[in-house]
């Protein structure tokens, strides 16, 4: 949708959620398979399978997550559960120190690609190692072994954080480029208003909603060609920007755009005809209060009320015909379609 640009948070969530969900399911399945293999080989305590149940519940929570923050929390819980599972299994089968570093590295490094913030990756990695230390409680024969292990753990946390930071920057750069492309496709470069494409897409969706009366306003700056010829195109551009500013101020909450040249449009869902006429008059009066090079700006508006079952193009055509009525009636006013009414 053109009018609802996603935030970086929303975009990151949409990108990360499938990866996190599939990775968690894979981790839970792998842990279950490892438990089965160990059970078949030498037998293990049945309570170890409870980790698989917890992992399944966490996978469901991740599936239900709606923010990157909740993804981080559920992801941390899942990897800590799997870490505790494999750590407990290592104790059960003997020689847990042999599996201490492999288990920690397997669960602390890959998660770096699954977070929207570097501190999420750092905290998750730290939680993995803390869980492993708590479950395994390794004892080192030499101080050097402990020192080197802690150095390796620190290095793994730093690498995970740097990888996450790099991926976050890449996502941010891609997001900025997508937003620029969005603006190029849906925004008028001179006035900053939505362009015809944006307006038409929104209007197409609005026309089908008949719960609230819809009114279409076609706006055209009076004597714009004469302004360009007499004062130059720079002044003409300033006039367009000034009118766009007024339109933006007066039409907040409605669908409005610059259609092209000196033409603008507003599609407003309002309570009744009187409210639509008040909106049209406010726009006419606000534009006319602008002074530029000794003359007052003015525009004419054609106003049409959407009829049941009427197509978008029919609505626009009736508003365009009403605009011509406003021009022929003296400009600087609005005219109602089908009523030839002037303000």
Outline the structure in words.
With 343 residues, the protein is an alpha+beta fold. It has two domains: 176 residues, no CATH class; 147 residues, Reverse transcriptase/Diguanylate cyclase domain (Alpha-Beta Plaits, 2-Layer Sandwich). Helix content is 65%, strand content 11%. It contains eleven helices and eight strands. The strands form two sheets. It has a six-stranded mixed beta sheet, with helices on both faces. Strand 7 and strand 8 form a beta hairpin. The chain is elongated, with a radius of gyration of 32 Å.
First and last CA, distance: 36 Å
Mean model confidence by pLDDT: 88
Give helix % range.
Answer: 55-70%
Structural class estimated from helices and strands: alpha+beta
Low-confidence stretches: 339-343
Structurally, the number of domains stands at: 2
Total DSSP E strands: 8
Give the helices and strands, then pairings.
Blueprint: H1 8-42, H2 50-64, H3 68-93, H4 96-108, H5 118-136, H6 143-186, H7 196-207, E1 214-221, H8 224-231, H9 233-250, E2 255-260, E3 263-269, H10 273-288, E4 291-292, E5 295-296, E6 299-305, H11 312-328, E7 334-336, E8 341-342
Parallel strand pairs: 6-7
Antiparallel strand pairs: 1-3, 1-6, 2-3, 4-5, 7-8
In short:
This protein has helices at 8-42, 50-64, 68-93, 96-108, 118-136, 143-186, 196-207, 224-231, 233-250, 273-288, 312-328, and strands spanning 214-221, 255-260, 263-269, 291-292, 295-296, 299-305, 334-336, 341-342.
List keywords for this structure.
Alpha-Beta Plaits; single chain; two-stranded antiparallel sheet; 65% helix; 8 strands; 11% strand; alpha+beta; 11 helices; 343 residues
């Amino acid at each position: 949708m053109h009018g609802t640009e996603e935030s970086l948070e929303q975009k990151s969530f949409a990108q990360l959620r499938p990866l996190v969900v599939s990775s968690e399911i894979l981790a839970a399945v792998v842990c279950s398979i490892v438990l089965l293999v160990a059970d078949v080989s030498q037998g293990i305590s049945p309570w170890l399978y409870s980790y698989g149940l917890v992992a399944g519940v966490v996978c469901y929570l991740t599936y239900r997550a709606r923010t990157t923050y909740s993804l981080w929390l559920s992801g941390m819980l899942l990897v800590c559960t799997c870490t505790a599972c494999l750590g407990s299994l290592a104790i059960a089968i003997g020689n847990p120190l042999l599996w201490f570093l492999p288990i920690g590295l397997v669960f602390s490094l890959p998660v770096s690609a699954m977070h929207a913030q570097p501190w999420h990756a750092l905290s998750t990695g730290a939680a993995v190692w803390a869980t492993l230390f708590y479950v395994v409680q390794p004892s080192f024969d030499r101080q050097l072994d402990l020192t080197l292990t802690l150095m390796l753990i620190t290095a793994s946390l730093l690498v995970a954080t740097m990888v996450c930071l790099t991926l976050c920057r890449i996502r941010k750069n891609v997001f900025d480029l997508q937003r620029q492309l969005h603006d190029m496709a849906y925004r008028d470069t001179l006035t900053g208003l939505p362009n015809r494409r944006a307006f038409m897409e929104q209007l197409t969706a609005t026309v089908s909603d008949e719960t609230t009366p819809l009114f279409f306003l076609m706006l055209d700056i009076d004597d714009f060609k004469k302004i360009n010829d007499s004062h130059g195109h720079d002044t003409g551009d300033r006039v367009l920007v000034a009118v766009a500013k007024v339109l933006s101020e007066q039409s907040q909450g409605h669908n409005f755009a610059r259609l092209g040249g000196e033409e603008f449009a507003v599609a407003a869902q309002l309570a009744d005809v009187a409210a639509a006429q008040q909106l049209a008059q406010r726009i006419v009066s606000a534009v006319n209060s602008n002074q530029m090079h000794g003359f007052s700006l003015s525009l004419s508006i054609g106003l049409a009320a959407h009829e049941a079952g009427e197509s978008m193009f029919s609505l626009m055509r009736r508003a365009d015909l009403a605009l011509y009525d406003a021009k022929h009636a003296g400009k600087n006013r609005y005219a109602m379609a089908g009523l030839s009414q002037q303000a």
